[in-house]
Design goal:
The chain is of the alpha+beta class. It is built from 5 helices and 7 strands; from the N terminus they run ααααββαβββββ. Strands 6-5-4-3-7 form a 5-stranded antiparallel β-sheet, with no helix packed on it. The chain has a two-stranded antiparallel ribbon with strand order 1-2. Strand 1 and strand 2 form a beta hairpin. Helix 1 packs across helix 3. The longest helix has 32 residues. The radius of gyration is 23 Å and the shape is extended. The mean pLDDT is 84. RNA chaperone with significant RNA binding, RNA strand exchange and RNA duplexing activities. This is RNA chaperone ProQ. Belongs to the ProQ family.
C-alpha cells in the first residue's frame, strides 16, 4: 500500500486509533487505563499500516495518556485493558498516585496560565465607565441565545450522495469530510484531516 494517505496530524492519528481500536481507545467519556507495554502491541499490530509511523504513534499515545480525561480514569479498582478491550490486571497504587499527581500539576499549570493571561487581556481593553443608571424597564428580555451554532442532525441513508459535505461523529467534536462512496449502511468518508474511513450511517451528521 502506498503511503499517500500518511497521517501527520496527531488529532487525525488519534481519530484513526478511535476508529481502529474502539474497545481500547475511547473517543469520549470515561477512559480506561491501558496495558503496560501497549505501545509495542500497537506498533506490531500496525506494522504494515503505511498511514502511521512508530514515532507518530508514540506522540499520539503520549497525548492520549496525558489528557485529564485519561488521568482521571487511573483510579483505584480500575482494570488495565489491551488493544481489544480485554482486562489485563488491576492498577498498582504507585501508578494511581503518579497519575493523580500529574493531573493535579497539569490542572494547576493551566489555572496559572489562565490567571497570567487575564491581566494582559484586561490591560488591552480600556476600562468602561459605568453607564448612568436608567429607569428600570419592565420589558422582559428574551433568554440569551447562544452564539449561532449549527445544529447537526443524524443523516438518513437516502439523503446521502457522493461528494456531499458531512460531519462524522468520532469524538466530542464532529469531524468534517466528504462522502466518497455509499455501500448499503456503510459510508466511506474522506475527512478534512486526510484520513478516509468507513462508518455506519448513524455516525454521519448533517
Amino acid at each position: 500500500m502506498e503511503s499517500t494517505d500518511k497521517l501527520t496530524d496527531t488529532n487525525a492519528i488519534l481519530a484513526y486509533l478511535y476508529e481502529t481500536f474502539p474497545l481500547c481507545f475511547i473517543a469520549e467519556g470515561e477512559t480506561k487505563p491501558l496495558k503496560i507495554g501497549l505501545f509495542q502491541d500497537l506498533a506490531e499490530r500496525l506494522a504494515d499500516d503505511s498511514k502511521v509511523s512508530k514515532t507518530q504513534l508514540r506522540v499520539a499515545l503520549r497525548r492520549y495518556t496525558s489528557s485529564w480525561r485519561y488521568l482521571k480514569g487511573v483510579k483505584a479498582g480500575a482494570q488495565r485493558i489491551d488493544l481489544d478491550g480485554n482486562e489485563c490486571g488491576e492498577l498498582e497504587q504507585e501508578h494511581i498516585d503518579h497519575a493523580q499527581a500529574t493531573l493535579k500539576e497539569s490542572q494547576e499549570k493551566a489555572k496559572a496560565k489562565r490567571q497570567a493571561q487575564a491581566p494582559k487581556n484586561a490591560a488591552k481593553k480600556p476600562a468602561k465607565k459605568a453607564a448612568p443608571k436608567r429607569a428600570p424597564v419592565k420589558k422582559e428580555r428574551p433568554a440569551p441565545v447562544a452564539a449561532p451554532v449549527v445544529k447537526l442532525e443524524p443523516a438518513k441513508l437516502e439523503e446521502l450522495k457522493q461528494k456531499q459535505r458531512v460531519n462524522v461523529k468520532l469524538g466530542a467534536t464532529p469531524v468534517p469530510g466528504v462522502v466518497t462512496d455509499i455501500n448499503k449502511e456503510d459510508v466511506l468518508v474522506q475527512l478534512d484531516t486526510g484520513l478516509t474511513i468507513k462508518v455506519r450511517v448513524e455516525h454521519i451528521l448533517l
